[in-house]
């Protein structure tokens, strides 16, 4: 189980109204302005030993050769005579990197971590059940069961203390998401192309600046089996959304690489249209702002949500697949879909955050500003309605 803190833009009154529920004590109340430079206050609840351990772990991870060596040892098949070395690396990883970045190996471990963060410092968490790509329906169903266990665990925690994150590539075979994304991209770049037969909503997924080079020729339509599998993926997502809606837990759907993102967005907005009624959305899509088309897609989504009468939930991140996106574009002799510099990405992230927070102030949306960047975080925190 992975867990991460988050900054959310949500009405303080709506949060405070829920705190007495289930007998949980309220967390420490935030000051009028959260001073991120006041490290004494921010880390007052963290033991010195934990801070020193974190410093040592992060310092070690700053060494590229050390990280490369450890990763190679973990991934490779190790001969008998080197199994002790691999076991030692695994033990070291559990005690350092895993302990630093993961809430625990089991749901019970994660629950204790989230509860402590909430009780000690009033910090909310994002629970991320650590599953990656699924190859077939059986793997998807196993992952669904894991995600539902994570939601059930989250529902036992203090109200508003956590949200749950899912990956669509864990709920649908990646080959199916690639095929569906090809159809959506081809539909976007060819107005004469017949509408995708299985498409059940017209919520905007792509835009004029989206990277369409990933589908250079007209794809074959989905087969009847693939359409059924896509419906199964939607039902898996719906089951998680339903459980989250009943427990009043936000569901954050991760963004992934461009080859599958259109299908992920299609399913995300399908779920949003079904569950995001009222001023507090259940379903949040993710925008990766290192992509050149991210702001336009987000603005189109905001307009689509307004037209459909649903609340838009967005998680903003910079992006996690830079190397993969760059290599793929180069292999296809196409322009990179990413911004040309980190500064452009920073500007895009901040612009998107400002746009979403303005919509939050009008009661039309909710946003999770997911960043480790202090300079991005400070202006957004100043803009949040509850600080």
TrEMBL record:
GO terms for biological process: L-proline catabolic process to L-glutamate. Residues 114-377 form the Proline dehydrogenase domain. This is Proline dehydrogenase. The keyword Flavoprotein applies. Its cofactor is FAD. Pfam families: Pro_dh. It catalyses: L-proline + a quinone = (S)-1-pyrroline-5-carboxylate + a quinol + H(+). GO terms for cellular component: mitochondrion. Belongs to the proline oxidase family. One of its GO terms (molecular function) is proline dehydrogenase activity. Its EC number is 1.5.5.2. Keywords: FAD, Flavoprotein, Oxidoreductase, Proline metabolism. InterPro entries: FAD-linked_oxidoreductase-like (IPR029041), Proline_DH_dom (IPR002872), Proline_oxidase (IPR015659). Gene3D superfamilies: 3.20.20.220. It comes from Zingiber officinale. The keyword Oxidoreductase applies. Transmembrane segments: none annotated. Converts proline to delta-1-pyrroline-5-carboxylate.
